[in-house]
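User: Predict Reverse transcriptase zinc-binding domain-containing protein's structure from this.
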Amino acid sequence: MDAVLIANEAVDSRVKKKKPGILYKLDIEKAYDHGNKEKKGFHLVKWKSVITGKKNGDLGIKNLNLQSKALQMKWLWKYANGNQLLWERVIEAKYIPEDKWMTKEVTTPYGVSLWRSIRNLWDEVKNNSKVKVFDGRKTMFWKDNWNEKGNLEELFPDVYNLVTFQQGFIADLWTLQGWNFNFRRHLNDWEVQRVADFLNTVEPFNGLQTGKDVLWWTGNNRGVHKVNRAYKLMDQTNQQIKNWPWKQIWKSRIPYKVSCFVWLLAKEAALTQDNVMKRGITLCSRCFLYGETLENVNHLFLHCKYTQQLWRIFLSRKGISWTMPRKVSEALRAGRKQEYWQKTEADGDLSLLQYGGEYGKRGTLGVLRA
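Assistant:
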């Protein structure tokens, strides 16, 4: 609801009637949204609620720490799939390569190394990637994650200790007749089954192809590293809460500022007298509009007698019979559910936030004046 529109209507009514009176202006923005800018205000929600996703019931501002990591992981993925760009050649010349994909971990004790901070995220990149083999000249048979079942050195450590060419590339071990493995000694009876399992694991390989081996990002169907997808993989808090009305709050056709205020109401975090008392300030909490009960979010915006009059005006104009829910979040969630309302005439779709500005100032004034 726009408090300015309500105040203007009250002033206009007094002017037309030519009766003296006192008008108390209810500034919702200052009273329930912002603190005193000249002094230290209240934190309405925890910072964790700010950086958690909207589907999880929070504000959805990105965690800059995770966003920075996702961007750095993008550079690592680009370097691993190197196209011999200038910056890649500089990194390759300055730091010792660990394998065909990445340099060794930077451990220099002096100076500030940008690449050192980026290189520290290589394990996270590998854990969310797999190698797609083409010519096999870049992929190590035992070390790299190219097999669908996982890293072969970790799956078959006993077989790994038996072979002679442990640092070999796929191109070195593959022939036209198939895999060519050399063992250090003859197999014992109890080792035969284990080697057979190993051969069954690598048997589905289809052979070498034209092109260079690539690091395939598993978070994308095209194998391309996407910063947003990497951010979501690292953000463990981004889990949708069942029945949280995030679409009614953020997808309605209303100003973003109104959506933010409705979000505060749904979280019951608006700065009402009840919430002020919870922050250690001694008050006599009474509803500002009627003065009979505690002033909290659900009472002030749903159940107060004056508020209910506004709801009746709106619902009667829409031809709807409505049973008011207990909380604002329930009212938002139930905006399209049959158990809370019944339409008495065909009047299009309903959104509880229409009255709060979806139709703009003229539409809202039209409802109030009717």
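Residues 25-33, 338-361 have pLDDT under 50 and may be disordered.
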